[in-house]
Amino acid sequence: MNSSKSPGLAGFGILKNTTCHTEKKISVFFSIIFMTVGILSNSLAIAILLKAYQRFRQKSKASFLLLASGLVVTDLFGHLINGAIAVFVYASDKDWIRFNQSNILCSVFGICMVFFGLCPLFLGSVMAVERCIGVTKPIFHSTKMTSKHVKMMLTMVCLFAVLIALLPVLRFRAYQIQASRTWCFYKTEHVEDWEDRFYLLLFSCLGLLALAVSFLCNAVTGITLLRVKFKSQQRQGRSHHFEMIIQLLAIMCVSCICWSPFLVTMAKIGINESRSKETCETILFALRMATWNQILDPWVYILLRKAVLKNLYKIARGCCGVHIINLHMWELSSIKNSLKVAAISESPVSSKQINLQPLSNAGH
Protein backbone atom coordinates (compact mmCIF):
# COMPACT_ATOMS: atom_id res chain seq x y z
CA MET A 1 0.00 0.00 0.00
CA ASN A 2 1.13 3.53 -0.73
CA SER A 3 1.24 5.43 2.55
CA SER A 4 1.37 8.83 0.85
CA LYS A 5 -1.78 8.30 -1.22
CA SER A 6 -4.03 6.46 1.24
CA PRO A 7 -3.49 7.83 4.71
CA GLY A 8 -6.59 6.12 6.08
CA LEU A 9 -5.30 2.62 5.26
CA ALA A 10 -1.59 3.24 5.34
CA GLY A 11 -1.08 1.94 8.82
CA PHE A 12 -2.32 -1.55 8.00
CA GLY A 13 0.22 -2.38 5.33
CA ILE A 14 2.71 -3.67 7.87
CA LEU A 15 0.18 -6.15 9.30
CA LYS A 16 0.31 -8.39 6.24
CA ASN A 17 3.93 -9.39 6.77
CA THR A 18 4.92 -9.08 10.39
CA THR A 19 8.60 -9.88 10.92
CA CYS A 20 8.79 -9.07 14.61
CA HIS A 21 6.96 -10.94 17.32
CA THR A 22 6.70 -10.15 21.03
CA GLU A 23 5.54 -12.21 23.99
CA LYS A 24 2.15 -10.80 24.98
CA LYS A 25 2.41 -11.42 28.73
CA ILE A 26 5.96 -10.09 28.98
CA SER A 27 5.15 -7.03 26.83
CA VAL A 28 2.03 -6.21 28.84
CA PHE A 29 4.05 -6.63 32.03
CA PHE A 30 6.77 -4.27 30.79
CA SER A 31 4.21 -1.66 29.66
CA ILE A 32 2.34 -1.68 32.96
CA ILE A 33 5.58 -1.56 34.99
CA PHE A 34 7.03 1.31 32.93
CA MET A 35 3.77 3.25 33.11
CA THR A 36 3.30 2.76 36.86
CA VAL A 37 6.89 3.53 37.85
CA GLY A 38 6.99 6.56 35.57
CA ILE A 39 3.75 8.01 36.93
CA LEU A 40 4.79 7.48 40.55
CA SER A 41 8.29 8.92 40.02
CA ASN A 42 7.10 12.01 38.18
CA SER A 43 4.23 12.58 40.62
CA LEU A 44 6.68 12.49 43.51
CA ALA A 45 8.96 14.90 41.65
CA ILE A 46 6.08 17.31 41.03
CA ALA A 47 5.20 17.26 44.73
CA ILE A 48 8.83 17.99 45.64
CA LEU A 49 8.99 20.83 43.11
CA LEU A 50 5.81 22.43 44.42
CA LYS A 51 7.09 22.23 47.98
CA ALA A 52 10.44 23.71 46.95
CA TYR A 53 8.75 26.51 45.03
CA GLN A 54 6.64 27.42 48.07
CA ARG A 55 9.67 27.43 50.39
CA PHE A 56 12.17 29.17 48.09
CA ARG A 57 10.98 32.02 45.92
CA GLN A 58 14.40 33.47 45.14
CA LYS A 59 14.86 34.83 41.66
CA SER A 60 17.87 32.60 41.08
CA LYS A 61 15.78 29.47 41.53
CA ALA A 62 12.66 30.56 39.67
CA SER A 63 13.92 29.65 36.20
CA PHE A 64 15.28 26.28 37.30
CA LEU A 65 12.03 25.34 39.05
CA LEU A 66 9.91 26.37 36.07
CA LEU A 67 12.00 24.39 33.59
CA ALA A 68 12.20 21.38 35.88
CA SER A 69 8.42 21.51 36.38
CA GLY A 70 7.88 21.59 32.63
CA LEU A 71 10.16 18.61 32.15
CA VAL A 72 8.51 16.54 34.89
CA VAL A 73 4.97 17.40 33.77
CA THR A 74 5.86 16.46 30.19
CA ASP A 75 7.26 13.12 31.33
CA LEU A 76 4.16 12.49 33.45
CA PHE A 77 1.73 13.11 30.61
CA GLY A 78 3.93 11.07 28.30
CA HIS A 79 3.63 8.07 30.59
CA LEU A 80 -0.10 8.60 31.04
CA ILE A 81 -1.04 8.96 27.36
CA ASN A 82 1.47 6.64 25.67
CA GLY A 83 1.21 4.07 28.45
CA ALA A 84 -2.59 4.03 28.32
CA ILE A 85 -2.61 3.56 24.54
CA ALA A 86 0.01 0.82 24.73
CA VAL A 87 -1.92 -1.09 27.41
CA PHE A 88 -5.11 -0.75 25.34
CA VAL A 89 -3.35 -2.15 22.28
CA TYR A 90 -2.07 -5.15 24.24
CA ALA A 91 -5.48 -5.69 25.86
CA SER A 92 -7.08 -5.70 22.38
CA ASP A 93 -4.62 -8.42 21.29
CA LYS A 94 -2.99 -5.92 18.88
CA ASP A 95 -5.93 -6.19 16.48
CA TRP A 96 -5.46 -2.83 14.82
CA ILE A 97 -7.87 -3.61 11.96
CA ARG A 98 -10.72 -3.93 14.46
CA PHE A 99 -10.26 -0.72 16.48
CA ASN A 100 -8.29 1.50 14.08
CA GLN A 101 -10.29 1.49 10.86
CA SER A 102 -9.69 5.17 10.11
CA ASN A 103 -6.08 5.14 11.43
CA ILE A 104 -6.95 7.84 13.97
CA LEU A 105 -5.56 5.98 16.99
CA CYS A 106 -2.30 5.21 15.20
CA SER A 107 -1.91 8.86 14.19
CA VAL A 108 -2.54 10.04 17.76
CA PHE A 109 -0.12 7.42 19.07
CA GLY A 110 2.57 8.46 16.60
CA ILE A 111 2.13 12.16 17.34
CA CYS A 112 2.41 11.51 21.07
CA MET A 113 5.50 9.32 20.60
CA VAL A 114 7.29 12.06 18.66
CA PHE A 115 6.18 14.93 20.89
CA PHE A 116 6.88 13.25 24.23
CA GLY A 117 10.18 11.99 22.83
CA LEU A 118 11.56 15.29 21.58
CA CYS A 119 10.08 17.67 24.17
CA PRO A 120 12.02 16.26 27.18
CA LEU A 121 15.23 16.33 25.14
CA PHE A 122 14.62 19.95 24.18
CA LEU A 123 13.78 20.89 27.76
CA GLY A 124 16.91 19.13 29.01
CA SER A 125 19.06 21.15 26.62
CA VAL A 126 17.30 24.39 27.62
CA MET A 127 17.93 23.57 31.29
CA ALA A 128 21.59 22.93 30.50
CA VAL A 129 21.85 26.31 28.73
CA GLU A 130 20.09 28.04 31.64
CA ARG A 131 22.46 26.48 34.17
CA CYS A 132 25.46 27.39 32.04
CA ILE A 133 24.35 31.03 31.84
CA GLY A 134 23.54 31.10 35.54
CA VAL A 135 26.99 29.87 36.54
CA THR A 136 29.16 31.62 33.94
CA LYS A 137 27.19 34.89 33.74
CA PRO A 138 25.31 35.19 37.05
CA ILE A 139 24.69 38.93 36.78
CA PHE A 140 23.20 38.62 33.30
CA HIS A 141 21.13 35.65 34.47
CA SER A 142 19.73 37.49 37.49
CA THR A 143 18.78 40.58 35.47
CA LYS A 144 17.68 39.15 32.11
CA MET A 145 16.50 35.60 32.80
CA THR A 146 13.09 36.42 34.29
CA SER A 147 10.15 34.10 34.86
CA LYS A 148 8.37 35.66 31.89
CA HIS A 149 11.26 34.78 29.59
CA VAL A 150 11.40 31.23 30.95
CA LYS A 151 7.67 30.74 30.32
CA MET A 152 8.11 32.03 26.78
CA MET A 153 10.94 29.55 26.21
CA LEU A 154 8.81 26.71 27.57
CA THR A 155 5.97 27.67 25.21
CA MET A 156 8.28 27.91 22.21
CA VAL A 157 9.87 24.53 22.96
CA CYS A 158 6.47 22.84 23.27
CA LEU A 159 5.16 24.48 20.08
CA PHE A 160 8.25 23.44 18.15
CA ALA A 161 7.88 19.84 19.34
CA VAL A 162 4.19 19.88 18.38
CA LEU A 163 5.10 21.18 14.92
CA ILE A 164 7.60 18.38 14.38
CA ALA A 165 5.03 15.81 15.54
CA LEU A 166 2.28 17.20 13.29
CA LEU A 167 4.51 17.60 10.25
CA PRO A 168 3.68 14.19 8.68
CA VAL A 169 -0.06 14.74 9.23
CA LEU A 170 0.11 18.19 7.68
CA ARG A 171 1.89 16.63 4.70
CA PHE A 172 -0.72 13.82 4.50
CA ARG A 173 1.81 11.17 5.48
CA ALA A 174 0.21 8.77 7.94
CA TYR A 175 2.04 7.33 10.90
CA GLN A 176 2.77 3.63 10.51
CA ILE A 177 2.01 0.65 12.73
CA GLN A 178 5.40 -0.86 13.49
CA ALA A 179 6.37 -4.48 12.85
CA SER A 180 5.73 -5.51 16.45
CA ARG A 181 2.16 -4.11 16.14
CA THR A 182 2.53 -2.47 19.56
CA TRP A 183 3.26 1.17 18.70
CA CYS A 184 3.15 3.72 15.88
CA PHE A 185 5.90 5.90 14.52
CA TYR A 186 7.37 7.12 11.27
CA LYS A 187 7.64 4.62 8.45
CA THR A 188 10.53 2.26 9.26
CA GLU A 189 9.71 -0.63 6.91
CA HIS A 190 11.26 -0.43 3.41
CA VAL A 191 11.94 3.28 3.55
CA GLU A 192 12.41 4.43 -0.04
CA ASP A 193 10.70 7.81 -0.32
CA TRP A 194 12.83 10.85 0.47
CA GLU A 195 10.16 12.37 2.72
CA ASP A 196 10.00 9.27 4.92
CA ARG A 197 13.78 9.40 5.22
CA PHE A 198 13.59 13.10 6.05
CA TYR A 199 11.25 12.54 9.02
CA LEU A 200 13.47 9.83 10.50
CA LEU A 201 16.63 11.86 10.04
CA LEU A 202 14.98 15.04 11.34
CA PHE A 203 13.87 13.29 14.52
CA SER A 204 17.31 11.73 15.03
CA CYS A 205 19.28 14.89 14.26
CA LEU A 206 17.17 17.07 16.55
CA GLY A 207 17.47 14.57 19.38
CA LEU A 208 21.22 14.15 18.96
CA LEU A 209 21.65 17.92 18.69
CA ALA A 210 19.77 18.40 21.96
CA LEU A 211 22.03 15.82 23.62
CA ALA A 212 25.13 17.52 22.21
CA VAL A 213 24.02 20.94 23.48
CA SER A 214 23.30 19.47 26.91
CA PHE A 215 26.69 17.75 27.00
CA LEU A 216 28.55 20.90 25.96
CA CYS A 217 26.74 23.24 28.36
CA ASN A 218 27.02 20.81 31.27
CA ALA A 219 30.74 20.41 30.58
CA VAL A 220 31.24 24.18 30.57
CA THR A 221 29.22 24.47 33.78
CA GLY A 222 31.24 21.75 35.50
CA ILE A 223 34.56 23.27 34.47
CA THR A 224 33.43 26.70 35.66
CA LEU A 225 32.33 25.33 39.02
CA LEU A 226 35.69 23.59 39.45
CA ARG A 227 37.57 26.78 38.60
CA VAL A 228 35.50 28.81 41.07
CA LYS A 229 36.06 26.15 43.72
CA PHE A 230 39.83 26.16 43.32
CA LYS A 231 40.08 29.95 43.09
CA SER A 232 37.92 30.60 46.14
CA GLN A 233 39.83 30.79 49.42
CA GLN A 234 36.73 30.04 51.45
CA ARG A 235 35.50 26.54 52.19
CA GLN A 236 31.94 27.69 51.88
CA GLY A 237 30.31 26.17 48.81
CA ARG A 238 32.58 23.18 48.29
CA SER A 239 29.78 20.78 49.14
CA HIS A 240 27.54 22.50 46.62
CA HIS A 241 30.16 22.28 43.89
CA PHE A 242 30.52 18.58 44.58
CA GLU A 243 26.74 18.14 44.50
CA MET A 244 26.31 20.07 41.25
CA ILE A 245 29.07 18.17 39.47
CA ILE A 246 27.52 14.85 40.50
CA GLN A 247 24.13 15.99 39.20
CA LEU A 248 25.57 17.19 35.90
CA LEU A 249 27.44 13.93 35.34
CA ALA A 250 24.31 11.93 36.15
CA ILE A 251 22.19 14.00 33.77
CA MET A 252 24.64 13.57 30.89
CA CYS A 253 25.10 9.84 31.46
CA VAL A 254 21.39 9.03 31.78
CA SER A 255 20.35 11.07 28.73
CA CYS A 256 23.11 9.75 26.49
CA ILE A 257 22.77 6.12 27.54
CA CYS A 258 18.98 6.04 27.30
CA TRP A 259 18.40 8.05 24.12
CA SER A 260 21.45 7.39 21.96
CA PRO A 261 20.46 3.82 20.92
CA PHE A 262 17.01 4.85 19.70
CA LEU A 263 18.20 7.99 17.91
CA VAL A 264 21.09 6.19 16.23
CA THR A 265 18.81 3.34 15.19
CA MET A 266 16.32 5.74 13.61
CA ALA A 267 19.16 7.47 11.77
CA LYS A 268 20.43 4.14 10.42
CA ILE A 269 16.95 3.23 9.19
CA GLY A 270 16.65 6.61 7.52
CA ILE A 271 19.96 6.10 5.73
CA ASN A 272 19.56 2.43 4.82
CA GLU A 273 16.74 1.23 2.61
CA SER A 274 16.23 -2.31 3.91
CA ARG A 275 15.59 -3.54 7.44
CA SER A 276 16.04 -6.98 8.99
CA LYS A 277 14.53 -8.86 11.92
CA GLU A 278 17.43 -7.88 14.17
CA THR A 279 16.69 -4.23 13.52
CA CYS A 280 13.10 -4.69 14.73
CA GLU A 281 14.29 -6.23 17.97
CA THR A 282 16.86 -3.46 18.28
CA ILE A 283 14.11 -0.84 17.91
CA LEU A 284 12.07 -2.42 20.71
CA PHE A 285 15.11 -2.54 23.00
CA ALA A 286 16.07 1.05 22.15
CA LEU A 287 12.49 2.21 22.71
CA ARG A 288 12.44 0.69 26.20
CA MET A 289 15.80 2.33 26.92
CA ALA A 290 14.35 5.71 25.91
CA THR A 291 11.36 5.08 28.17
CA TRP A 292 13.71 4.61 31.11
CA ASN A 293 15.03 8.14 30.56
CA GLN A 294 11.60 9.57 31.37
CA ILE A 295 11.51 7.41 34.50
CA LEU A 296 14.97 8.44 35.67
CA ASP A 297 14.59 12.17 34.88
CA PRO A 298 12.86 13.13 38.15
CA TRP A 299 15.32 11.07 40.19
CA VAL A 300 18.31 12.75 38.55
CA TYR A 301 17.04 16.33 38.49
CA ILE A 302 15.09 16.41 41.75
CA LEU A 303 15.80 13.50 44.08
CA LEU A 304 19.59 13.28 43.72
CA ARG A 305 20.19 15.92 46.33
CA LYS A 306 22.51 16.46 49.27
CA ALA A 307 20.72 13.94 51.51
CA VAL A 308 21.41 11.11 49.06
CA LEU A 309 24.95 12.30 48.33
CA LYS A 310 25.64 12.54 52.08
CA ASN A 311 24.68 8.88 52.53
CA LEU A 312 26.79 7.89 49.52
CA TYR A 313 29.69 9.81 51.01
CA LYS A 314 29.33 7.96 54.30
CA ILE A 315 29.32 4.61 52.50
CA ALA A 316 32.33 5.55 50.37
CA ARG A 317 34.23 6.85 53.38
CA GLY A 318 33.47 3.67 55.31
CA CYS A 319 34.69 1.50 52.43
CA CYS A 320 37.75 3.53 51.43
CA GLY A 321 38.58 5.20 54.74
CA VAL A 322 39.53 8.43 52.97
CA HIS A 323 38.47 11.84 54.28
CA ILE A 324 37.39 13.96 51.33
CA ILE A 325 35.13 16.72 52.62
CA ASN A 326 33.51 17.68 55.91
CA LEU A 327 29.86 16.79 56.28
CA HIS A 328 29.08 19.95 58.24
CA MET A 329 29.53 21.91 54.99
CA TRP A 330 26.22 20.51 53.66
CA GLU A 331 24.10 23.02 55.52
CA LEU A 332 23.56 25.90 53.11
CA SER A 333 21.28 26.02 50.13
CA SER A 334 22.82 24.44 47.01
CA ILE A 335 21.83 26.66 44.10
CA LYS A 336 21.96 29.90 46.07
CA ASN A 337 25.42 29.10 47.42
CA SER A 338 27.05 28.37 44.05
CA LEU A 339 25.47 31.34 42.32
CA LYS A 340 26.63 33.56 45.18
CA VAL A 341 30.23 32.39 44.85
CA ALA A 342 30.17 32.74 41.07
CA ALA A 343 28.57 36.16 41.24
CA ILE A 344 31.13 37.44 43.75
CA SER A 345 33.99 36.20 41.59
CA GLU A 346 32.72 38.00 38.47
CA SER A 347 30.98 41.03 39.94
CA PRO A 348 32.72 44.32 39.07
CA VAL A 349 31.26 45.88 42.23
CA SER A 350 33.16 43.50 44.47
CA SER A 351 36.44 44.28 42.71
CA LYS A 352 35.84 47.99 43.16
CA GLN A 353 35.18 47.48 46.86
CA ILE A 354 38.40 45.51 47.20
CA ASN A 355 40.36 48.29 45.48
CA LEU A 356 38.77 50.97 47.66
CA GLN A 357 39.58 49.22 50.94
CA PRO A 358 43.29 50.26 50.96
CA LEU A 359 42.33 53.88 50.26
CA SER A 360 39.85 53.95 53.11
CA ASN A 361 42.41 52.39 55.45
CA ALA A 362 45.00 54.96 54.40
CA GLY A 363 42.54 57.80 55.07
CA HIS A 364 41.92 56.53 58.56
TrEMBL record:
It comes from the Eukaryota. It is found in: Cell membrane. CDD domains: 7tmA_FP (cd15145). GO terms for cellular component: plasma membrane. Pfam families: 7tm_1. One of its GO terms (biological process) is positive regulation of cytosolic calcium ion concentration. GO terms for molecular function: prostaglandin F receptor activity. Keywords: Cell membrane, Disulfide bond, G-protein coupled receptor, Glycoprotein, Membrane, Receptor, Transducer, Transmembrane, Transmembrane helix. It is a multi-pass membrane protein. Its main location: membrane. This is Prostaglandin F2-alpha receptor.
